[in-house]
Specification:
Blueprint (H helix, E strand, L loop, with lengths): L8 H27 L10 H29 L1 H21 L3 H30 L3 H53 L13 H9 L1 H30 L4 H27 L5 H23 L3 H33 L5 H30 L1 H15 L13
Organism: Sinomonas flava
Protein name: Major facilitator superfamily (MFS) profile domain-containing protein
Pfam families: MFS_1
């Protein structure tokens, strides 16, 4: 059997860079806001900090499906380029004004802009990849993982060297450079003919297992990532590790996820790993990682320190397994002319998980301790395994 020709390297790498930009922007600013929220910095109370952190995700929840549909109508390239340009412009607000209201405007603008180029980038990867969706979504996820890993570190360095003006300036320059790169190197993907869809059609799509299953998996994986980023450092601090060592646990998780995703995608495309088996294995690793962290919360200082890094490694590998397989499954089950809307709608599940995972762990931990909070996360992820998608033929291909 002839192996399908891969898309040109120059066509897809700018899309990987767009994925990196949204992850880098979201996590570098979030880490910076948390670090500078005290009386010596922005002077924010916890409620105001929570609002600033939530604005980015709030914009994405409402706007991603709209921009995904727009990408189907116009073709994804102008939506990717326009979103990146808007991200660069929104970041400039934080360069010139550092009052909390201005940071809120910048954060909301960045989230709205990411709502445009993130699902449009995913749809572009799906269309360019053809039958190699696993491999290319694995690489796309790996680049986003790198953004998650180094975002807080680069954000901390920028804050140390020049405060929020330098951090927002770097983000503006990165987004502008990637916009130029996409405009120059990505081929234009023309909008495809599509029939008119009714509200009933949309309801059937959302309720179909080929959409609902991978979307719930993405929510579980992203919720685990959000919870781990926040609570593994807290567990590390409880065990007596330094701040640097606590942050390093998050880096271990992100690197593990970034290394696993391209390999998983290649195995899928070679027929050596099915979506169902890989997703269940990935969710299982997340469950084990959360339980290891839960056990570490009740262990001695040395054992807790080991548990933090073991949990980070297991959770990162599990997230790296489940995420590209869920995205590839969605791409294969979706007609190309509806790819943008589907990816935008699926991103709502990811955002819900990103908010719900930390909320679940925090709510349980507040009443019963961090160990029980992580155990609750393990239970929720295990339940998500019941929604693991079944094999599906490629839609419209």
């Amino acid at each position: 059997m002839t192996q399908p020709a891969p898309p040109p390297f120059s066509a897809v790498v700018p899309l990987y860079a767009a994925g990196f930009t949204t992850a880098f922007g979201a996590h570098s600013i979030a880490a910076g806001l948390g670090a500078e929220s005290g009386p010596g910095g922005l002077g924010l109370n916890l409620f105001a900090l929570g609002v600033l952190l939530a604005l980015y995700d709030l914009a994405e929840v409402f706007l991603k499906p709209l921009f995904g549909s727009l990408a189907d109508r116009l073709g994804p390239k102008p939506v990717v380029v326009g979103g990146l340009v808007a991200f660069a412009a929104a970041s400039l607000v934080g360069v010139f004004v550092q009052a909390p209201w201005a940071l809120a405007v910048a954060r909301l603008g960045q989230g709205a802009a990411a709502s445009a180029f993130s699902p449009a980038s995913s749809a572009s990867v799906a269309r360019l990849a053809g039958p190699l969706t696993g491999r290319y979504f694995g690489r796309y996820g790996s680049w986003k993982g790198i953004g998650y890993a180094i975002g807080p570190l680069l954000g901390a360095a920028a804050l140390y060297l020049g405060g929020f003006p330098l951090l927002f300036g770097v983000l503006s320059l990165v987004a502008a450079a990637v916009a130029v790169w996409v405009a120059a190197a990505m081929p234009r993907l023309e909008p495809l003919p599509r029939r008119r869809y009714t509200v009933a059609d949309l309801a059937r799509q959302i309720g179909d297992r080929s959409f609902l299953g991978p979307t719930l998996v993405l929510a579980a994986a992203t919720g685990s990532l959000g919870a781990a980023v926040g609570f593994l450092p807290a567990l590390a601090a409880q065990s007596g590790l330094s701040t640097a060592a606590a942050i390093a646990a998050v880096t271990v998780l992100a690197i593990a996820s970034s290394l696993v995703q391209p390999r998983v995608g290649a195995l899928r495309d070679a027929g050596r790993l099915t979506d169902t088996r890989g997703i269940l294995l990935g969710l299982g690793l997340i469950v084990v990682g959360a339980l290891v962290g839960a056990a570490g919360a009740t262990a001695g200082t040395a054992a807790a320190g080991v548990a933090v890094y073991a949990a980070a490694l297991l959770a990162g590998a599990g997230i790296g397994l489940a995420t590209p397989l869920a995205f590839a499954h969605l791409a294969d089950a979706t007609p190309p002319e509806r790819m943008g809307r589907t990816m935008g709608s699926a991103e709502i599940g990811r955002e819900a998980g990103d908010a719900g995972g930390p909320l679940l762990v925090g709510a349980v931990a507040a009443g019963a301790g961090l160990g029980w909070g992580l155990a609750a996360l393990a239970g929720a992820v295990a339940l998500a395994g019941l929604a693991a998608p079944r094999p599906v033929s490629r839609a419209g291909r």
